[in-house]
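User: Continuing from earlier, I have the next pair ready.

Assistant: Great, send them over.

User: Here they are, in order.

Assistant: Folding the first of the pair now:
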Amino acid sequence: MPKSILLVDDDHNILSIYKKILEEEGYTVYTGYNAEQAKAIVKEHEVHLVIMDYYLQNTNGLQLTEALKKIDENLQIIFLTGYHPILDTVEDIRFRVERVLFKPIDIKDLLCEVRRLLGMDEGYRQAPIPYENMTQVDTEATPYNS
């Protein structure tokens, strides 16, 4: 049974691109445009990983993470953000999510993180990445090549 991923972003184009890439990798992918849709999907489907934009309409990633973890405390979460001052709140973030990736997103980095998180043995989760390692090495997005 393929692992399932929920993508949450209010940018429909981003959702479409990431959905296509992740489905080509063999994952089942659900998409939500806001917090309400994300919560409904997690209630209705078995979701293994949530990839979300940190800033969404009427909420932010921490608020949505809290709501989703009330539904399923084992959810793994990756934040995507183009807003670097998010590092001011990284102390709150690093114990709630598995990874923060900064835009522009390198698709290879995203896929690496997805494989790392979903490829682990059942019941094992790596400790959150320390603050000092929460940086993106590449400054340019790399196009996805299959």
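And the other member of the pair:
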Amino acid sequence: MNNTPKKYQDYVGFVESKALRGRSKTEYLRQVRKLGAHYAGRELGRISEREVFDYLIHLRVVQKLRPSTLNQAVVALRMFFRDFAGLTWVLWEQFTIRRDHPLPVVLTRQLLRTVRSGRFRAVLTLIYHCGLRVGEAVAIKPGHIDNERGILRIVNGKGGKMREVPISTTMIKKGRQYWCFHRNPRWLLPGVGRGWKERTRSLARAMGEARQPMSVPSVQNALRMCLPASGVKKNATCHTLRHSFLRFAPVASRLHQQLSQQSGLRYRAGVHPHIHTLIPAVGLSESGCSLHHPPLRRRSDPA
């Protein structure tokens, strides 16, 4: 990129000083480099407001970027020219992005019954039950479940944020049984990796000794493989299960009110309209219930 090295290097330091996730920092820098490549031979600091506007039009009309991708470019360039360079352009108010709102794909619990592996059925059920992203689900630890309040704590969610979601007593019992099968000291959903049968004949032992949780690709592949057997012809992914949680059925406003009063829980009406039908009213979960419970009988395969 033929731009003033110092200008760009100063911007790199500016981005690094922000409390952003690694992927966000990389994307912000990449979008600025793309602008410099589009106006090859020009210094970044000498690119005008009109030229940036024309570049954004080029991304939308010529490259046909999706609204979400186009928004990433706008946010990155706005940080460079407004926040870093201090230029007060009206461009950021004038350039608008029209977002499409297609009807969501909704899956039912019938799909989960076609998952043969107990390990993957457990994580997919948890995603559907609590409305989790797949990366959030595999990273859950036994200590993240507050049994008395019926709450699951997401420690490292999207953007590094922490939040809490409701979880039913039924799901807590299943989670305890699943953990008692492998008793991994760190992970609720440990991964075993490839070749575990050669390392140890026992699945429970392989899971108990695992040092890493399930991998995100393995969970995604498990759902992809069960779709044909389930008869589902929709283009479904693990994230579809999360959206199915959010849209499958309405929930009483009383539950929303009770949840919003507990430790900063925030729900917006119309955005998260569905809490799984198995979830009872807050306060009805078992007291003293814990995943680290007196051992249950081991099963040959986790439920």
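Worth noting for the second one:
Strands lie at 145-146, 151-154, 163-166. The chain has two domains: 5-94, 111-189+215-260.
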